[in-house]
Amino acid sequence: MTAYILNLVVLISIYAILSTTLNFIIGYAGIFSLAHAVFFGIGAYTSAFVAMNLTPSFFVAIPIAMVLAALTSLALALPALRVRGEYFVAASLGLQMLAVTLFSEWKGFTGGIGGVIGIPPVEIFGFALVKPWHFLILTLVCLALVIAIIQRLVHTSFGRSLKSIRDSESAALAAGKNITVIKTLSVVLSSSLTALAGGLYAFYMAFINVESFMLATSVLVMAMVIIGGTGTILGPIVGAALLMLLPGALSYLSFLPQTEIGSIQQIIYGSAMVLLMIYRPGGIVSPKTRGEAA
Amino acid sequence: MNMQNTAYDTTAAQPVTEQETLLKVRNLQMDFGGLKAIQDVSMDLRAGIVTTLVGPNGAGKTTLFNMITGHLKPTAGEVEWLGDSLLGKPPWKIARQGIARTFQDLRLFTHMTVEENILTVMEQGGWLWQSGGMSAKTARQERVASILERTGLKDKARVRAIDLAYAERKFLCMARIMATDSRLWLLDEPASGLDPNSYGLFLELLRSEVANGITVCIIEHNLDIVVNISDRIAFLDQGRLLADGLPDEILNNPELAAIYFGER
């Protein structure tokens, strides 16, 4: 039971990093991306590759993964963010499709459909994290770090610029803001922090394949952000916890046909999204109070 | 109809011809498909004075602002700022050259506080930090406090723009433009919908900024404002500049009045 809970908390923490980093661009910059799983995947595959071919050191594998994800996101953001928001959504969807093919076919790097097996345990200053609670501490520290970085960023001049672009792109332009640079930088930052989650996932699971980095994952993370509450620090974490706990919670309801749990889960996701859009469009954690700042 | 105003001081407009020309618009044209929104418009905006654009709805006044500020690319013509062409430059570069604007539909940063709305306009650096360090940060904060005081928004500093009353939103637009270091302000109906008290404060604010050297071009339908603050008036109709001159010449022209009020 303890192992089960530990596993759940580690996975919730990893997905909370994903939703927090996606919320950084959705909630604060108004950029909707359907390619979040791509950067999650780049982080996971790169960390695995470095761990298996170079060193399993956290301080080598993760930074390399983050740089590679940042560079890939730059290639997406620079052309796509010059145009209006909906084009970025389309471009990110294209990247997601392309990446799935690449992840499936590039056997030398990703292991193809079969994936990568036998990823060694991550090491921190030569100490291998082999026990689940070791990993729990690492993921919680990483989550806290990501939250702290994003919390700090949104309260700086850069965060204010992002929010101004989200609220009115034309007014931000008229105020002298180079919105292409600002939006590109936000996507690069978000993607590199997403790669951190990918690296943690690869080291924790010791096995990865393309199934974890498909469009469904991008949509799931977006649902976590929207259900939890965009533009808030707590919202994406609440969203990640809820959506990760849901499958487990449903399996405890003995009156439900266990073979249909997947379908029931989809019905619940869909209904929750519709009800939230009607009654609480800002998400579960939303600054609705009059006079309260986002 | 006589649009003459007794409060208007004609001596204010006398030195106009000697003023430095900040912005030159030459043979500007804007076509939206078959619609000619702006046709062969040429005019100058001179330093230190208030030029008012008047004309009926659909005359092309806001389109002209959009072309000057780079939000629309003209079909033909030239826009020059202090002798340099602005054509092809993105709006943010034009803004940084010293041309600020407001929007008819306000376009506030609605989910940010009043204070943040003003502060972010001063923070034009696109990277993760602003140049100048702590001293520049302190200077920005002091300037925000001063602008809040002058616009009557001091008590609303921590309130989100979306939660402001209409007149307060209008003053936030003014506060934002005051936060720029621009020499030229393009104001799109800044006083529409203001109650008499707010209207008085608005006029006082605008006059003091003009006295401090700000050049203003204003789109306005309220004739009381037009006659009270204009040094020059440009009259547009159906995309054409029909007249550009001293307020007395324009306001007492019966033909222009007939066009303005839809009598022809």
The helix content of chain B, as a percent range, equals 25-40%
Q: In angstroms, what is the radius of gyration of chain B?
A: 19 Å
The secondary structure category of chain B is alpha/beta
CATH class of the largest domain in chain B: Alpha Beta
CATH superfamily of the largest domain in chain B: P-loop containing nucleotide triphosphate hydrolases
Helix content of chain A: over 70%
The fold-level CATH name of the largest domain in chain B is: Rossmann fold
**Average residue-wise pLDDT of chain A:** 91
Which sequence of strands runs across the widest sheet of chain A? 1-4
Number of domains of chain B: 2
How many discrete structural domains of chain A? 1
**Structural class, judged by helices and strands of chain A?**
mainly alpha
Q: State which percent range the strand residues of chain A make up.
A: under 5%
The rounded Rg of chain A comes to 19 Å
CATH architectural type of the largest domain in chain B: 3-Layer(aba) Sandwich
Q: Outline the biggest β-sheet of chain B.
A: 6 strands, mixed
Helix and strand element order of chain B: EEEHEEHEHHHEHEHEEHH
Oligomer: heterodimer
The largest sheet of chain A is:
2 strands, antiparallel
Report the largest inter-chain contact. A-B, 30 and 37 residues
| Low-confidence residue ranges of chain A | 289-294
InterPro entries (chain B): AAA+_ATPase, ABC_AA/LPS_Transport, ABC_transporter-like_ATP-bd, P-loop_NTPase
Keywords (chain B): ATP-binding, Nucleotide-binding, Transport
GO molecular function (chain B): ATP binding; ATP hydrolysis activity; L-isoleucine transmembrane transporter activity; L-phenylalanine transmembrane transporter activity; L-valine transmembrane transporter activity
Domain ABC transporter (chain B): 23-263
